[in-house]
Amino acid sequence: MADADALDALEEELRQTAAxxxxxxxxxxxxxxxxxxxxxxxxxxxxxxxxxxVDAVPVRGVDDPPRMLTFQAGGLTxxxxxxxxxxxxxxxxxxxxxxxxxxxxxxxxxxTADGMGRFAGDTPPAGPFALRLRTGGEVIVTEWLRA
Length: 147
Description:
The protein is α+β, with helices and mostly antiparallel strands. The protein has helices spanning 2-21, 26-37, 52-55, and strands spanning 44-51, 67-73, 76-83, 86-92, 97-102, 108-113, 118-121, 128-135, 138-142, 145-146. The mean pLDDT is 84.
């Protein structure tokens, strides 16, 4: 029992030392709190099944190809093209959806998918981003990626 108490005291002393010598940046703490606030307990996570940065074969003569992404969650597929002009995408099977492009703290850009599941945004994501889709009563969130 004394060993456990000694370990607890040592751990607390190390935490205090780290807080003084290498404090957590306020911006990072705010990002962590904002990320936690954005979570949806009922959301399904869409798995990244294709990323052209990893899976595609390079094409000669194309200087800045768009990034193509495919996410899947159950029977739902989301195809997204990220280019210098913004985002283009489609929800399959085709259906209307409300889409939020999640960025840094408080940076949420709403998009709407039409009856064919198509959506577009005129601002390319900068830095880490994820998509949150609301289709009917279902919420789906993609994993976070770097633009």
